[in-house]
Amino acid sequence: MEIITVRHLRKTFGKGESAVKALDGIDLSVEKGSFTAIIGASGSGKTTLLNMMGGLDTPDEGEVIVDGRNLAGLKEKELALFRRNKVGFVYQNFHLIPTLTVRENILFPLSLAGACADRVFFREIIQMLRLGERLDAYPHELSGGGQQRVAIARALAAKPPVILADEPTGNLDSKSGQNVLGLLKLSAETYRQTLVMITHNLEIAQMADRVVRMEDGRICT
Ligand SMILES: Nc1ncnc2c1ncn2[C@@H]1O[C@H](COP(=O)(O)OP(=O)(O)OP(=O)(O)O)[C@@H](O)[C@H]1O
Ligand SMILES: [Mg+2]
Predict the structure, then answer these.
(1) Which residues, judged by CB distance below 6 Å to any ligand atom, belong to the binding site of ligand 1?
(2) What's the pLDDT at 74?
(3) 3-class SS string, 105-173
């Protein structure tokens, strides 16, 4: 079963001579529960594609359907709800809030939504990500790998069916990178989530069910 369908997606940034075709006709289906790695040179359109799948950016042409929802049909408020409930984002630079503790960072998106955390689930992911001892610490007190584990817990807290990760191991040494990747795979398997991950690391890409290579805004086959 497909959980993400991308059809004929096009996106150009800028106008006239400085226009860049970031996406030049992308078609892609992602199977529910699968792990897809997106690879390709810098500037090939990987982040642009991931942002479209997460409803963070809108295409010029084409459509994105996630978990039965056509994103083009959603109003701004509905898109915000979609992002909150359906996708968890993990970034290369962690994007944690420095003045909040680990616990507060993880619960921040839920608190913004006025939603309560599922306490049992919270404990479960904290345990899985080995953050139990660090809940009252601040992000700068953790290693890079530790900070990324917090970002993963934050992405998981709302139990989204889809996790979109943009070079999540890019700022980590190879050992913490492998560790973080293992945890992302474990959580995806445990919670039957679909994982789409951009990576420059071919070793990591090889652990995916499927590798999608991008070049100049297109998918190479
Ligand atoms: N908001 C934007 N405004 C203008 N140009 C943009 C914008 N976002 C992306 N681009 C351009 O679109 C192209 C694709 O960018 P994108 O960030 O998707 O590439 P990428 O494959 O993720 O690269 P990297 O590996 O460096 O992260 C690049 O030429 C980039 O400069
Ligand atoms: Mg990118």
Answers:
(1) 13-14, 20, 22, 40, 42-48
(2) 93
(3) HHHHHHHHCCCCCCHHHHHHHHHHCCCHHHCCCCHHHCCHHHHHHHHHHHHHCCCCCEEEEECCCCCCC
